[in-house]
Structure formats: structure tokens, C-alpha cells
Specification:
Elements: H1 2-25, H2 27-54, H3 59-65, H4 72-107, H5 112-139
Helix pairs in contact: 1-2, 4-5
Length: about 140
């Protein structure tokens, strides 16, 4: 763990310095490049996660453990992804519906009940992710 921190800290500091320099020179172009790099890093991380879950990344460990469906770690990773994705989606949904509901209530106060129903439906997205996570953890 200490070795990974010693290696990771200078890498993160270097990336932060390059990002700062790139954004100061050309803010719009620098931000666009930063978004492309972040997208590529996200794609690489997803590919690596898929390779680990499929057992391609460590064939010796996958052969010793048997099939990947009996791996409880995969269920826990799936539960984490379900909760994270649903809460991020619920956050976006509540942000948009909540601001629209406040605007509608400020102009027409009797629309409070109907607007809160939509905000509650947006909150339900996070609960669905939590239910999926509980089901996955129960099968592990």
C-alpha cells in the first residue's frame, strides 16, 4: 500500500500540474482535451474491470477459483456499481426536477403536490439501485 502511494502521489501531482498549465494557456481547448482524456481513462478502467470480472486478467487465479460466477467479489463489485450508478442518476434527476418544481411552485403554489410527486419519482431511482445491490449481495 505504501509503495502504491509513493508511486501514485507524484503521478497525480504531475497530472494536476499539466492540467493547470493546459487550462491556463487555452481554457476552452484545454477543457476539451481534458474531457477527451477523462473519457479515454474511463473507457480503459471499464475495460480493465470487465477483464478482471471475466477472469482474463489473472488466468491462474481464475483457474484455481473455478468459475467466475462463484466469486463473491464480483457480486460485491456489481452491487457497488448498481448503487453508484443509480445514485448518480437520481442526483441528476432530482437536480432537474427539483429546480423545475421550485419554479412552478413559485408561480403557482397549488402545484406543490404534483411537483413533489415528480421529485419523489426521481428519488425512487436510487432506491431501485439499492434493491438490486441487496439482491446481489444476498446471492454472494
Amino acid at each position: 500500500m505504501i509503495v502504491s502511494l509513493l508511486v501514485g502521489a507524484p503521478v497525480i501531482a504531475g497530472i494536476a500540474a499539466l492540467t493547470t498549465v493546459g487550462l491556463r494557456r487555452a481554457p476552452r481547448r484545454g477543457l476539451q482535451r481534458l474531457l477527451y482524456v477523462n473519457g479515454l481513462l474511463l473507457l480503459a478502467a471499464l475495460c480493465l474491470t470487465a477483464a478482471i470480472l471475466a477472469g482474463w486478467a489473472d488466468p491462474a487465479h481464475a483457474a484455481a477459483a473455478g468459475s467466475s460466477s462463484k466469486n463473491p467479489g464480483a457480486a460485491l463489485i456489481g452491487a457497488g456499481i448498481a448503487v453508484a450508478g443509480s445514485t448518480i442518476g437520481a442526483g441528476f434527476a432530482v437536480a432537474y426536477t427539483g429546480s423545475a418544481a421550485l419554479a412552478a411552485i413559485s408561480e403557482k403554489p397549488e402545484a406543490f403536490g404534483r411537483s413533489m410527486v415528480f421529485v419523489g419519482l426521481a428519488e425512487g431511482i436510487a432506491i431501485y439501485g439499492l434493491v438490486v445491490a441487496i439482491i446481489l449481495i444476498g446471492k454472494a
